[in-house]
Design a protein that fits this description.
Blueprint lengths: L2 H12 L5 H13 L1 H20 L7 H16 L8 H20 L17 H11 L8 E2 L3 H7 L20 E9 L2 E10 L2 E9 L11 E3 L2 E8 L2 E7 L3 H12 L1
Antiparallel strand pairs: 1-2, 2-3, 3-4, 4-7, 5-6, 6-7
Length: about 250
Amino acid sequence: MSCDYTRAALHGYLDGELDASRSAEFERHLVGCRECSKELETEKALRAGLQRSGLYEHPPLSLRKKIRAELDAATAAPAARKIPVWQWLAAAAAILVVAAISWYAWPLRNAIGGAAPPPFTAAELIDAHIRSLQPGHLTDVASTDQHAVKPWFSGKLDFAPPVKDFAEDGFPLVGGRLDVLGGRNVAVLVYGRRKHYINVFVLPTKEPDTPIHPPGLRQGYQWLHWRHQGMEYCAVSDVSVADLHELAQLIYQ
């Protein structure tokens, strides 16, 4: 794989758009290419900086209403009244801009009840989950024993993540690993569910507790976010929403 090709594929890898084989090929190339590794780290740092800068804004509800009104008017207008092409292009461009901002810059979802949003984006979350599904990436410590997984994190993080096994409830502990979200080191607890894997990202927070938020969906993966007893959790998988919510409730107890 040439460096020119790698640069062309870098954003696809960063956004989780490459299939497993191309992602693995890209990672093998990174081992021997300092230029591409440096470029990848630069892109990650840029994304993390934009997330922390507070530069993004929620589009006003009036924008959506305006676009909807223009589209409704266009479809309902009589044949004699032609809509200029530039108006169609402007409406389409506005929709694309809003969609792009919502995916690359917005946090997982709007804060509920005034609570602060997670310090990472949906794109980062899905990227990390997809990366973990590649061979050799799922766990750093593979064990079904919570008393083996919990001590493994000691000294590697500045906090101690709660670790529990829920095998009796149908969610056996598979292991744990370290990962990075929003430029921060986080703990990841990996659970199994009917031949599927669920990644539960854990990091400390000073924000107040929140209930389990409604699920998000992207690229066929679901996620749930909540805060409880000084910890921030985000569970992501391709299992059903019901299964994901059941595990979240078990952890929340």
